[in-house]
Amino acid sequence: MSHEEHGHEYVPEIATTRDGKQFEVQGWQGDIYGGKLGFWLFMLTEIMMFGAMFLVLTYYYSLHPQDFIDASSHLNRLLGGTNTVVLLVSALTMGLGLLKMRAGDVKGAKLMIYATIILAFIFLGIKAVEWREEYVHGVFLGLDALQSGNEHSRPFGQIIFYGMYFTMTGLHGFHIIIGIGLMVWLLKRINSGKVTTEHHILHFNIALYWDLVHLIWVFVFPYYYMIGAGHGH
Amino acid sequence: MSKSYLDAGETHCAIGHPKSVFWQWMLTVDHKRIGLMYAAVILTFFFVAVFVALTMRIELFAPGAQILDGDTYNQAFTLHGVIMVFLFIIPGVPAVFGNIVMPLMIGAKDVSFPRLNWFTFWLYIFGALIALSSLWTGNGFADTGWTFYAPYSLNTNTNVVTTLVAAFVLGMASILTGLNFLVTIHRLRAPGMDFFKMPLFVWGIYATAWIQLLATPVVGITLILALMEKIFGIGIFDPSKGGDPVLFEHLFWIYSHPAVYLMILPAFGIMSEIIPVFSRREIFGYRTIALSSASIAGIGYLVWGHHLFTSGMSDLAKTVFSFLTFFVAIPTGIKFYDWVATMYKGKIILTTPMIWALGTMVTFVIGGLTGVTIAMIGADIHLQDTYYSVAHFHYAMLGGVVFLLFAGLHYWFPLMFGRIYNETHAKRAFYVNFIGFNMLWFPMFIAGWQGMPRRYFDYLPEFQIYHQISFFGALIFISGLIYMFTVLISAIKNGEKVGPNHWNATTLEWHLPTSPPPLENHSKVPYVDFRPYEYHHGEPVVKFNLDTMQRID
Amino acid sequence: MDINTYKAQRANYYKVLGGLLLLTAITFIQPHMFLEHYTFAAQLSIGAIKAWLIVMYYMHMKGETLIGWTVVFAMSLVTFFFIVVMLDVEHFQYEDGSHITSQPHIEVDYGHHTASHEE
């Protein structure tokens, strides 16, 4: 990945045909497209994983549609919607940061990364407020309302809805935390000169990662928060 | 003279530049060393699981309890399955030969992400340790079978949680291997080597890598949901709460069926390498074999429901799956016809790799055809969860994948170590294995047909004869395995030294300057303007000057 | 990159942002304004359009061929899994004896058209 780390430049090999024509050999070092391809392949695994979770959700939605709509109407659409906008803007800041890095404005790029980190923390903060609101109402993993067969039990469809809600937003939040860690690491690499305008595949990939995190939320939000939005609660 | 990759000295490491040989191996990013380490660990786990199976065979020698009680028996077949599937056969050929041989075959210096490769190996070790730790903690190893069906897996108090976590970690290692190989094959092929000039083993690894990448996450999330349910009691899969256990089966088999194609495709790749070399002929139907690997990978994602025929699935779904399952057998059949056509009018040389490959043709055909039998819904209602299934998948996995892995061990042994084993003993070991294998597994087809259920610790006296024959088959088979590995392991130190192209083969891994290969692989990357299996009158067409890697034919 | 490319790409980013914000607004008014009885389909369709914009422009997929096809392949697989599993559960033949899949067929109530207050 970084040929400069060992102090010797990586010089690509040349392969020669029988007629003397020369071709540059693609080595594993300094392979920008390879880095991009590898990261996209990793993101495909995330699509498969969240895709399977949406399958489970759809399965139970088809069996208990009214329960799902009732449960959805109880989620806090204001906070959820705010988070949607927060994440949207953070995707913009991350993208602008990459653009600035490519244009040579390293300082501006770093500022954008800081902005993204702050927005990410705001997202997590709002999510924590939402979760706490649910917890205070007795709706949380492990509490009676989400277990079957006791006096506080919610209808089964609602148990599945909330159980999957906490699982999926929890996993999504986990990915946000990892994203923050990656951005902090990126800042370090920029500061130490390892990520530059000429050589910024890491920045590119982390921006892609952040877009994926946003992409997942684009589906999580309507599926959980909006299907019950018309309900008169 | 460049040093071989086995010599102590400078090797590329993930962290720093250690001086001690031990740390040079522990931290190495070299694909050949990593592949060897995988081989040592994977084959050790193989033997552990074989001995667990022997214990089961001893127990099943007669009806009633012999040496185990029912609960322990359940733990035994779970342990056997978890080790064999997750620790041995899924990493299996890709981790060993994909690592050692594939980069050499495409003229690369290493994989695309060598440090990720190093990390993946240790992730695999970590997952394996988590799985094995559950033998000694809590209520002992899981007793659910390696398939972890709900609701039993949710309600049993054995170490299901630990095993689920281990399987998740191992799954991550599999995904990362697949990712690494996909980028390697797309990016690091030698100039001139387009996809249809790659050796067929590389095609096999390529198709496998797609399955590793896309199917494994589904089982990953299934295991996470099962964990969430075990810990928080949500009821996603537990019918007593309103959940649907068939949903678990769907999600589980959406991965686990493609997983078996993940196992067999690299193995078929090995077959495609061995047959032309020892028939001294170009492979017949290169393009169809290559495309059949891709289609098996693609169609293999679509057939998982044939594991659920007796679960209460709708008739519509059953019909779709049965049809697709029949359909996916076709590309495999094409491969077999192509291999036989390659041998026709070839100059067959019966070396040890070749007889393993030929033996596999017999055993895998039995495994494959019996699979087609149970693809028939009506037949499957009778045969599902009987010894017929068990015999089918052991003929396919053991008689297919593992036999070809053994063939690969014998074929690439001179490449890996620069030495050759004793052919006479190696061939004898094959025959012992082949006889033992068939004696062990064939009676089970009959027992299953008569109704002997699988995973049963006790049985009616009318089945005893089959178990007894199987038991003696097991003894012979295990002796064969021990014999074979003794031959191989002793040859590592004491085998006769051989040159870089012992079999006079055509693919690039045999055109290295030293035997064993140098650390940096080929002296120079060649320009590839030739097909991978060009023979003329039994001799390879393409010849190289091994220092300049220019063609001299 | 030169200043003009930079400005052009930056303008593009802001355009996509505008589109995404607009779609988010539509998400909020849809349950009260149009296709109220098809909220589920409408919401996920809006989500799909947003996703397409993000993938094409923010994730630069517009210029990538190989990567584009791999994404299509993965999405096709997920779609196949969805279709088959949902077909299976919708056509369960032992529905009468099952407490998991047997549901009274009710008209699903998406709620009133008046603005709603969260609890």
Distinctive features:
heterotrimer, B: 553 residues, mainly alpha, Cytochrome C Oxidase, Chain A, two-stranded antiparallel ribbon, 17 helices, 64% helix, C: 119 residues, 2 domains, disordered C terminus
Description:
The complex is a heterotrimer of chains A (233), B (553) and C (119). Chain A has 233 residues and is mostly helical. Chain A has one domain: Up-down Bundle (Four Helix Bundle (Hemerythrin (Met), subunit A)), CATH 1.20.120. Chain A has helices at 32-63, 65-73, 77-103, 106-136, 156-191, 201-226; strands at 14-16, 22-24. Chain A is elongated. In chain B, the strands form three sheets. A two-stranded antiparallel sheet of chain B has the order 1-2. Chain B has a two-stranded antiparallel ribbon with strand order 3-4. By secondary structure, chain B is mainly alpha-helical. In chain B, β3 and β4 form a beta hairpin. In chain B, 58% of the residues are buried. Chain B has 17 helices and six strands. Chain C has 119 residues and is mainly α. Chain C folds into two domains: 1-59; 62-92. Chain C is built from three helices and no strands. Chain C has helices at residues 3-33, 39-58, 66-90. Chain C is flat and about 70 Å long. Chains A and C meet through α1, α2, α3 and α6 of A and α1, α2 and α3 of C.
Strand order of the largest sheet of chain B: 1-2
**CATH topology name of chain B:** Cytochrome C Oxidase, Chain A
Termini distance of chain A?
55 Å
Radius of gyration of chain A: 23 Å
Fourth-tier CATH superfamily name of chain B: Cytochrome c oxidase-like, subunit I domain
Q: How many individual domains of chain A?
A: 1
Number of helices of chain A: 6
What are the secondary-structure elements of chain A, in order, as H or E? EEHHHHHH
Supply the number of structural domains of chain B: 1
Structural class of chain A, by secondary structure, is mainly alpha
Mean pLDDT of chain B: 94
Q: What's the quaternary structure here?
A: heterotrimer
Any idea what the CATH architecture of chain A is? Answer: Up-down Bundle
Strand arrangement across the biggest beta sheet of chain A: 1-2
Any guess at the CATH architecture of chain B?
Up-down Bundle
CATH first level of chain A = Mainly Alpha
Low-confidence stretches of chain B: none
The general outline of chain B is: globular
- What is the CATH class of chain B? Mainly Alpha
Q: Please state the structural category of chain B.
A: mainly alpha
